[in-house]
Write a structure and sequence with these properties.
- The chain is α+β, with helices and mostly antiparallel strands.
- The chain has nine helices and 14 strands.
- It folds into two domains: 182 residues, Alpha-Beta Complex (Lambda Exonuclease, Chain A), CATH 3.90.320; 78 residues, no CATH class.
- A hairpin with a 4-residue loop joins strand 3 and strand 4.
């Protein structure tokens, strides 16, 4: 006899449902600064093109996001209590500082700028606050300077994020402040701006935004030990399992990605709004690298492919420009 399903707690389900409905999470307009340190450029390209299945934000995930934001606010309060002057919002508009690089395609929000840091009171720092679970926090401590490479080794994506923010704001120092969610222990590390590294990250984002071709796979054998991260990549199905991409403007070969994180339809010549890009239109034709097959033939309004199982499939538009 199969085990009985666990009873549903209706109060918890009601809370999760309310939080999920309130979520505003969606496809990123550009490449988030927090992702630019990702080793796999193909993964970033899929995300920028909105090719993989849309992320489903559950109520529990929404609570996790909220917890992270609250921890950031607490860490800023802790710094201020210690006498550090933290500017958490842009005085020009009262909103969180926004940065854009790579023609607007590399985008992010910084936690703030900090001055009066005890180790260098007169120096302005980019501030980045993070919360960690026990295992992740121990990695920070394990690699802490001066014996280790610090954030660069323990959390390379966070290191890349801080370096990109320093580039965007023209600052040469960063302050990374982290908290262990299990114990409330704090970790702080001052970072020195690495100009060559940061410029290379911006160039990486530019390269990904400008190409219609999927970058090379990081791993051809998804079952190899080196490819362990592929198992939880949202684009696993596209990259290795023969799935089709989503239909929207960014997966269409008529889409032109322009400066300012704008998308123009080559058929109509018109810029497409974020909501219009999400929907696409009847004239959609997949970028060839998003079709799980080999291109065999093409006409003005169609492209024919041989799929993995040997069948022929024709991708055809209905000539109804946006």
């Amino acid at each position: 006899m199969p085990p009985l399903p666990q009873p549903i707690n209706h109060t918890v389900e009601a809370i999760y449902g309310a939080l999920a409905r309130r979520s505003r999470h969606g496809d990123s307009r550009g490449i988030p600064v927090g992702s630019i340190g990702e080793e796999c450029e193909r993964k970033l390209w899929y995300a920028l093109r909105w090719a993989a299945p849309a992320e489903q934000i559950t109520g529990q995930k929404q609570r996790l996001f909220g917890t992270g934001l609250r921890e950031e606010e607490r860490l800023i309060e802790d710094l201020r209590a210690a006498g550090v002057r933290v500017e958490a919002t842009d005085p020009a508009n009262g909103q969180q500082f926004r940065v854009e690089l790579a023609d607007g395609w590399l985008r992010g929000k910084i936690d703030g700028r900090a001055e009066g840091v005890p180790e260098a009171p007169a120096t302005m720092h980019v501030l980045e606050c993070k919360s960690h679970n026990e295992r992740s926090f121990k990695e920070l401590v394990k690699h802490a300077p001066p014996k280790g490479e610090g954030l660069r080794k323990a959390k390379p994506e966070h290191f890349a994020q801080c370096q990109t923010y320093m580039l965007a704001l023209g600052l040469t120092r960063g302050l990374y402040l982290a908290v262990n969610k299990n114990t409330d222990e704090l970790y702080a590390e001052r970072l020195v701006f690495d100009a060559a590294f940061a410029i290379a990250l911006e160039s990486k984002a530019t390269r990904i935004a400008r190409t219609d071709r999927a970058p090379a796979r990081l791993h051809d054998d998804v079952k190899s030990k080196a490819a362990f991260a592929c198992a939880w990549c949202p684009a696993l199905g596209l990259c290795h399992e023969g799935q089709f991409a989503r239909v929207n403007c960014r997966t269409c070969l008529h889409a032109q990605l322009e400066a300012g994180a704008e998308v123009r339809c080559a058929l109509s010549g018109q810029l497409r709004s974020y909501n219009e890009q999400q929907v696409g239109c009847a004239s959609h034709l997949f970028l060839p690298d998003l079709v799980p097959g080999i291109q065999m033939d093409a006409g003005e309004t169609w492209v024919e492919y041989e799929l993995r199982d040997g069948t022929l499939w024709r991708d055809a538009e209905e000539l109804q420009p946006c």
